[in-house]
Design goal:
This protein is of the alpha/beta class and 373 residues long. It has helices at 15-27, 37-57, 71-82, 97-105, 120-130, 152-162, 181-184, 244-260, 262-281, 310-319, 332-338, 356-372, and strands at residues 2-3, 65-68, 88-92, 109-113, 136-140, 166-169, 188-192, 204-208, 286-289, 300-305, 322-323, 325-327, 345-349. Strands 2-8-7-6-5-3-4 form a seven-stranded mixed sheet, sandwiched between helices. Strands 9-10-13-12 form a four-stranded antiparallel sheet, with helices on one face. β6 (166-169), α7 and β7 (188-192) form a beta-alpha-beta unit. It has two domains: 15-260, 3-Layer(aba) Sandwich (Aspartate Aminotransferase, domain 2); 261-372, Alpha-Beta Complex (Aspartate Aminotransferase, domain 1). 51% of the residues are buried. The chain is globular and about 70 Å long.
């Protein structure tokens, strides 16, 4: 299989990830639930995972790294901590439903920054115009549909100057783009473990600048006589038994990323994307959403076929062993902003475990399908 759907989930991972999951399954219990060796091993693992994530993302205190079950879990914590019912929130026009649905549930008033795709300057100009009087700013680091890199550092500076809390959805950027959380001064940054971080599904990280409101209430392994959740991080936000086996895999994946470096990952993915984009463009049968600029786009490429629906092409590619995703990608707002809401797009997304030859082969299969349609 030629797997080009890593923006959804990284199917191929460093070998150490699966080994770590199996080791934890055989040797670890639940952290904070006993003084015996399996429980203590789990507690030590969780702390080491926080330390490793803090090192990768510039968090000075590992206890401000909260272990979540996915990015959606973390975003819900962040949103409900900062946004009151009916509050005003500034969001980009490229947000995922993991951001917009919690806001709609709160009855929030959304100010949406809708500017042309890949135009970072226009985005910042419009964000500065709309930011006055909002309770929070929430912005994706990278569009999951188009790979558009939003100007997060400049937006963070704007938020600091206006004293408005910023929530970063780093779902598509984590593991590929640098993110120094303390330097940005954001209130929260949420990310899944199973995409660019190369960890297992069912894992995630929430980086916290300050305290937050619990989303879940229950056992934490600490302060058991307290009728409320503990007052300190990370326990305050980690109710219930954690996914220890998943955390073990995430810990191993973070080690692989620290050794390799996000700069090398990003450079390798950009080379693959250029190979893929050039080959797909040569077919003459696809509309490509391609910036041509590594500062504006990651290894994600959306296309619309001519004379064929996105879903039909994705299905045909799947039967030929090429894994892609079509549709709205859980981000209808992004498609509305880009003008592709009626058609959706077909999305190719690369990973460090893909080769240039595989991308060329995928493009050739795509061309053959389009010619016979």
């Amino acid at each position: 299989m030629i797997y080009l759907d890593s923006a959804a989930t990284s199917l191929y991972k460093p070998p150490a990830v699966a080994n770590a999951v199996l080791h934890a399954m055989r040797t670890m219990a639940s952290p904070g639930r006993g003084a015996h060796r399996p429980a203590m091993a789990a507690a030590e693992l969780c702390y080491r995972c926080r330390e490793r994530a803090a090192r990768l993302f510039g968090v000075s205190e590992p206890d401000r790294v909260v272990l979540t079950f996915n990015a959606t879990h973390g975003l819900n914590i962040a949103i409900r901590s900062l946004v009151p019912p009916g509050g005003r929130v500034l969001v980009s026009g490229w947000e995922h439903n993991a951001v917009t649905r919690p806001l709609y549930a709160l009855g929030a008033e959304l100010r949406i920054v809708k500017t042309p795709l890949f135009d970072r300057t226009a985005f910042l100009r419009e964000a500065a115009r709309l930011i006055e009087g909002v309770d929070a700013v929430i912005c994706t680091q990278v569009s999951n549909v188009f790979g558009f890199i939003l100007p997060i550092e400049e937006l963070a500076a704007l938020c600091r100057a206006r004293e408005v809390p910023l929530v970063i959805d780093a779902s598509q950027g984590a593991g590929v783009l640098p993110l120094n959380f303390d330097r940005l001064g954001a209130a929260f940054a949420a990310m899944p473990g199973h995409k660019g971080l190369m960890g297992p599904q069912g894992t995630g990280l929430l980086l916290c600048q300050n305290d937050a409101r619990p989303l879940l209430y229950g056992g934490s392994g600490s302060e058991s006589r307290n009728p409320d959740m503990p007052s300190f991080l990370p326990d305050r936000l980690e109710a219930g038994t954690p996914n220890v086996c998943g955390i073990a895999g995430l810990y191993a994946a973070l080690g692989w990323l620290l050794d390799k470096g996000t700069e090398r990952v990003r450079a390798g993915e950009w080379r693959l994307l250029r190979t893929l984009a050039d080959a797909l463009a040569a077919t003459g049968r696809l509309q490509l959403f391609d910036s041509g600029d590594p500062e504006a786009q990651t290894g994600v490429l959306s296309v619309i076929p001519k004379g064929m629906s996105c879903d039909a092409l994705a299905e045909a590619l799947g039967t030929q062993g090429v894994a892609v995703r079509s549709g709205l990608h859980c981000a209808p707002l992004a498609h509305e902003t880009a003008g592709t809401l009626d058609t959706g797009t077909l999305r190719f997304s690369v990973s460090p475990f893909l080769s240039g030859a595989q991308t060329e082969r995928a493009a050739a299969i795509c061309e053959k399908i389009l010619k016979s349609a």
